[in-house]
Amino acid sequence: MNFLRFSYQFKKALMFLSEGILIFLSVLAGVYFRVGGLDHELIIPKALLTTGVCLISLYYADLYDPKIIKDIRELLIRLMQALGVASIVLAVIFYVYPVLMIGRGASLVSACLIIVLIVSWRLLYRSLLMLRGMEERILIVGTNPFAIELAEEITAQSTLGYRVVGYIGRDPGRTVGNPIALPVLADLPGIAQVVQDQRINQIIVSLSERRGRLPMEHLVECKMSGVDVNEGVSFYERITGKILIDKLRPSWLIFSSGFDKSRLVTGTKRILEFTLSLITLLLLLPVILLIAVLIRLDSPGPAFFKQKRVGEQGKHFVLYKYRSMAADAESETGPIWADDADDRVTRMGRFLRKTRLDELPQLFNVLKGDMSFVGPRPERPYFVAQLSKNIPYYGIRHSVKPGITGWAQVRYSYGASVDDAKEKLQYDLFYIKHMSLFLDLEVILDTIKVVFLKRGAR
Fold it and tell me: What span, in angstroms and rounded, lies between the C-alpha atoms of 192 and 169?
C-alpha cells in the first residue's frame, strides 16, 4: 500500500484517473440497468463523452484541490454543482447531436451511481490515509517561523497523506505554533530515538537550522535506516507549487534539479505556439475587429494599446493589448500600480479585464516570438528596475520568454505591489524550474477556469 506515499502530483493524477474509471463504469451500469444490456449503439463513445464532460466539470469545481475540499459537506456541494453543470453541457451536446444521447432513464441512474461511487471512493481514500502505516509521518528539525509555517501548510493539506508528528529543537516538552500546536519531542542529539519511537517516515530540515547545529551522524543513521531526509524549501515547493525566495541560497539554485531548458522542449514549444497563435488569430479575426470597434465607441482614443515590456534575457519588446483605460491615463501620474477601483478604467475596459479579453492582441506577440502562451508575465521597465532592487533573484524570471498567462497568474491574484510581485516571483521560479509542455497544459486549463469564474482579474 505504499502507493499512498507518492508525490502530490501523482496522487492528484491517480484520483483523477480513478474517478474517470468510476464515472465510465457508472454510465455503462446506468445503460445496463435501464436497457438490460450493453449492445446499445455507440455505447463506448457515448460513455467516454459523458465521462470526459463530468471529469472536466469536477476539475473546474475544484474537486481536486485539497485546500478547498476539506470535509464531506464541501465535497457534496461541489459534486452536485459539477454534475449540474455537466448535465447542462451534455444536454446542449445531445440537442445538437441526438445520436450521442444515452437516454434520460440511463442518465438518471448513472448520475445517482456517480454521486454514490465518488463520495464512497473519497471517504475510502481518506480512511486509507488514516490507517496505521499508511500515513507519511513527518518530523521537522527546527522551531523557527519557517518550520512552523511548513507544519501548518502540511496539516492544512490532510488529503496528501502527511502528518506532522512534532519538532526537534530546544526545550523539549513545550508546544510550538498557533493555531496548529505541536510538541517539541527532543533536542537535536535525540533525533534518532524519536524517529524510532514515533515511526517517522520523513525528516524535514528547516534551512535556518542547518549551520553548525545539525547532528549529521544521526541524520546519516536515519537516512541509512530508510527514513527520507529533505530540505524544508524543497518540501515546501513540492506541496505548494512555489519556491520561497527568502530561504534560498545560491548553492540551492545551482545544485537543485530542474532549471534546465531543453532545446527539444523549447523548440517544440515554439513550433506549437506559432501554429496555434496563427490559427487562433485567423479564427478570431472577426471577434478581434468587433472588440476594437466597441472600444472606439465606448471612449475616445485608439482601440489598441502598445507598451514597452521586458522580455527574455532582459530585452525590451512592444506588447499589444486592447486599450482598457482612458487615453493618456498616465500623462499626469506616470507609471503606477493598477487598483481595484481604478477610475482610469473605461466601462468596456472593465469588462475586458474581467474576462481577460484585453490580452487577446498578445497573440501577435506570440506569433512574433516575443512571448509564449505560458510564462512569467512581462513587466514594464520602470517596475523591473524597482523590483530588481527590492526582491532577490528577480532577474531569474527573465531567463525564459514571458507569457500571456502563467503559473503565478493562476495561483495568485493580480499583483499590485512589491509584496505581490515577490509572492508571484516564487510561483514563477517554480514554473521556470519545472517548465514542460505538461505543466503548460495544466496552466492553460487553469487559466480557462480562472477566466470562466472571473478570479484574480483587475
Answer: 13
- pTM, to two decimals: 0.78
CA-nearest of 122, 139, 114, 121 to 54 is 114
CA distances from residue 31 to 19, 44, 105 in whole angstroms, order as listed = 18, 11, 8
Q: Which three cell numbers stand for residue 417?
A: 505591489
* Residue carrying the nine cell digits 505554533: 177
Question: What is the residue-level pLDDT of the chain in tens, covering all 458 positions?
Answer: 343 444 556 667 778 899 999 999 998 998 888 777 776 667 888 889 999 999 988 888 888 776 666 667 777 888 888 888 888 898 899 888 888 888 778 888 888 898 889 888 888 877 776 665 567 889 999 888 889 999 998 888 766 778 899 999 888 989 988 888 899 999 888 888 899 899 898 999 885 545 556 667 778 888 888 888 888 888 888 888 889 888 777 877 777 777 777 788 888 899 999 999 999 999 999 999 999 999 999 888 899 989 999 999 999 999 999 998 887 766 556 666 666 556 778 889 888 888 888 999 999 999 999 999 999 999 999 999 999 999 999 999 999 999 999 999 888 876 667 888 999 999 999 999 988 888 898 899 888 887 776 654 44
First-to-final CA distance of the chain? 46
Residue closest to 433 by CA, chosen among 261, 227, 195, 240: 261
On whether the CB atoms of residues 160 and 70 are closer than 8 A, the answer is no
Q: Give me the residue spans of the domains in the chain.
A: 2-130, 136-240, 263-453
Identify the CA nearest to 295 among candidates 216, 364, 351, 374.
Answer: 351
Q: Are 252 and 429 in contact (CB under 8 A)?
A: no
CA nearest neighbour of 458 among 307, 300, 344: 344
Q: Where are the alpha helices (DSSP H) in 61-215?
A: 72-96, 104-130, 145-156, 191-197
**3-state SS, residue 67:** coil
CATH classification for the domain delimited by 136-240, as one of 3.40.50.20, 3.30.930.10, 3.40.50.2300, 3.30.70.120: 3.40.50.20
- Give 202's strand partners: 138, 228
DSSP string, 157-220: -GGGSEEEEEEE-SSTT-EE-SSS-EEEEE-GGGHHHHHHHTT--EEEE-GGG-TTT--HHHHH
- Alpha-carbon distance 89 to 257, whole Å? 42
Distance in angstroms (rounded) separating the CA atoms of residues 85 and 343: 36
